[in-house]
Design a protein that fits this description.
It is built from five helices and twelve strands. By secondary structure, it is of the alpha/beta class. The longest helix has 14 residues. The termini are close together.
Length: 202
């Protein structure tokens, strides 16, 4: 994604779109793409769209063969969308959020063994007798117009995350402008029947 965005010079447009306040949802690699900072990257790093005030570990849960599914506690989702208090998270070579800024709302966290301590670019196994049995990492966040999940809700039959995101679009759409300007500078928004901006899914 980053290589293609760089090759086609898409980063300026993507960053501008995020900054306009229109709703954007990033899942898995999309979460990494939206983060302001990512660790555990390949040699040479990668470009990021940014906008989400957090630090993401690119492959926190391991390689492709360490992909997994898990029941996640989702009190915010259940409160807003109804349904059970859990959601089946599908993690595929998944990242995790290590740190968040003050404006970021943590929606879901997930317990992991505490003998995995993160050092800038890798997960290092340590042996400590007095280590806590588990810690929690963040796997879903929201900041203003940005929603990000480390797992893949689109791979389940549970559509509550999609409903949650669409409602974000409705709420933010009332406050955002949807003016469309052609290359020549003509305002085309008057030609549209609907002026509601569609949300973007990464």
């Amino acid at each position: 994604m980053a290589k293609l965005a760089e090759y086609h010079n898409l980063f300026p447009a993507l960053r501008e779109f995020v900054e306009t306040g229109k709703p954007v949802w990033g899942t898995c690699a999309g979460l990494i793409f939206l983060a302001n900072k990512a660790v555990g990257q390949k040699i040479g790093g990668q470009g990021l769209v940014g906008g989400l005030d957090c630090t993401v570990h690119r492959n926190f849960f391991g390689s492709q063969i360490q992909s997994f599914e898990a029941e996640l506690l989702v009190p915010k989702l259940a409160s807003n969308e109804g349904g059970p208090e859990t959601f089946r998270g599908v993690f595929i070579r998944a990242p995790a959020v290590l740190e968040v800024g003050p404006e970021v709302e943590v929606l879901v966290d997930y317990p992991v063994p505490s003998n995995k301590v993160l050092y800038s670019s890798s997960t290092v196994e340590i042996q400590e007798e007095n280590a806590m049995p588990e810690m929690k990492v963040i796997v879903a966040v929201k900041q203003g117009n940005l929603l990000a999940t480390a797992f893949h809700p689109e791979l389940t039959a549970d559509t509550r995350w999609h409903s949650y995101f669409l409602k974000m679009g409705s709420e933010l759409g009332e406050a955002s402008s949807s003016s469309i300007v052609a290359v020549g500078g003509e305002d085309l928004s008057s030609n549209l029947q609907s002026k509601t901006d569609l949300p973007v899914f990464l």
